[in-house]
Amino acid sequence: MTAQVVPPDRQVTPVRQPSSLAAARLEKTVSAGAVRHNLAVLRAAAGGRGIMPVLKGDAYGLGAPAVAGLLVGAGVQALAVDTVAEGAALREHGVGVPILVMDVDVADNAEACARYRLMPAVAGLEQVARHSAVARRRGEPVTVWLRTNVGFNRFGPREERDVDTVLDALHRARAAVRVAGVFAHLSSSARDAEETAEQAAAFRARVSRARAVLGRRLAVSLAATHGLLHPAALDGTDWVRPGIGLYGLMVPDSRDLPGWAGSALARLRPAVTVRARVLDLVTVTRPEGLGYDRSAALAPGRRLATVAIGFSRGVTGHAPAFTGLLRGRSCPMVGRPGMDCAQFDVTEVPQARPGDWMTLIGREWDGTGPERSAGDVAAELDLTLYELLAALRMPVRLEDGADTPVAPP
After folding, report:
1. Which of 267, 301, 321 is the last residue in one of the domains?
2. What is the pLDDT of residues 358-383, one digit of tens each?
3. Which of 52, 79, 87, 241 is the S-S candidate for 118 at Cβ 3.0 to 4.6 Å?
4. 79 and 165 share a domain?
């Protein structure tokens, strides 16, 4: 007879969704108020240009549908994503504003791109042909943006003759493919003013060529968050495409750029908090190791908190410098993280107990305690800010003030 883990008469009906069960252990919190504030700061820095927020990678792991709803509610008139799947997901959640798909997606997704009324990037002849074919099959034109390459070198030609070939193809396909605008990515706007100025000049030349072939009404987009620090990147730009700036984050090197002094970007506010529960406490009574490999040496008398975050949630490797805040104290991680938990030294926090929240990014509780910035954590884990937000995979809660966590007793 096959053993049953739960007898039929003992089957239980779930009372909570799995996502809420996970959120009881750890969560990212996004402050809606901070995002609205940052949007206003970015608008001021953009000087009347349109704001097209980038929600790629599920809004850097912060929940694209919820963030999109917040931004559209705040008056944003267009959004950008990397893939057709990301754009389709926003449409499925009722987002109706124009959506630019910035990466060149695979041919298999061209039909869905048209069906969901997305604006794909085209950077070469094959993309022009595929979207022309879709338009002919559907009996209606598709709208695209021309992605041009001025040094980022992920999509599109660098040589002017090759650019002209793409422009000629778009001109011939104009009955089926309508070009709404032209955009490019800057490669060094967070740290190199000279190279950014060179790429901005190259982009303006490309825009002039595109308008000569496709018409003067093309929209133009070059600057993202850090591009706002470069007058050259804003020259002639209609749309700014901010990403991590919406969450109050700037690459540290950007504060050394000439455009930082007096910039409105200094008023951005951190919008993201990451915290995880203490699951258990262990007091070491003899010299021992820790975890599967037992490579971390533990001295008697140390007290460890087992915290609900591990490598399945993005904390990987041996990071002795990685720390969390618990009851106002900084507690270093010990040893390597496990799948869904890691150990932190809480010897100096005698009042720690199971159920406490440890803050990994953000300010503790009532906003008056110490703070761990995303930049601190990114440096400790050797990640960029972009990588950090997306790497920390956990439930996300959009908080608008009424859900402020209550401090532990």
Report:
1. 267
2. 999 998 866 667 889 999 899 888 88
3. 87
4. yes
Asked whether the predicted pLDDT for residue 4 surpasses 80, the reply is: no
d(CA 84, CA 103): 9
Give which of 132, 194, 217 is closest to 166, Cα–Cα. 132
- End position of a domain, from candidates 235, 267, 299: 267
- 242 residue type, one letter: P
Tell me, letter by letter, the H, E, C secondary structure of 140-186. Answer: CCEEEEEECCCCCCCCCCCCHHHHHHHHHHHHHCCCCEEEEEEECCC
pLDDT surpasses 60 at 403:
no
Query: Token pair of 241, please?
Result: 């495409």
pLDDT of residue 5: 59
Helix (H) / strand (E) element for 101: namely strand 99-101
Res 8 pLDDT > 90: no
CA gap 356, 353 in Å, rounded: 6
pTM of the model: 0.91
Residue 22 forms part of a structural domain: no
Helix or strand holding residue 267 (H, E)? none
The pLDDT of residue 408: 36
CA distance 16 to 209: 58
What's the rounded Cα separation, in Å, for the pair 403 and 407?
12
CB 169 within 8 A of CB 125: yes
Residue 75, Cα to own-chain centre: how many angstroms?
A: 20
- Residue 381: phi and psi, rounded to 5, are -90, 5
286 token code pair: 């003899």
* Per-residue pLDDT tens over the stretch 192-231: 999 999 999 999 999 999 999 999 999 999 999 999 999 9
pLDDT digits (tens, 9 = 90+) for 16-55: 677 788 889 999 999 999 999 999 999 999 999 999 999 9
More confident residue, 288 or 53: 53
Please state, in angstroms and as integers, the Cα–Cα distance from residue 350 to each residue in 305, 314, 359, following that order. Answer: 11, 28, 17
Q: What is the pLDDT of residue 97?
A: 97
Per the listing, tokens 């963030």 go with 67
Q: Of all residues in the chain, what percent are helix, strand and coil, respectively (each to 5)?
A: 35, 20, 45
Q: Do 333 and 261 have their domain in common? A: no
Residue 153 placed within a domain: yes
Q: Whole domain around residue 372: which residue ranges?
A: 272-399
Q: Report helix, strand or coil for 113.
A: helix
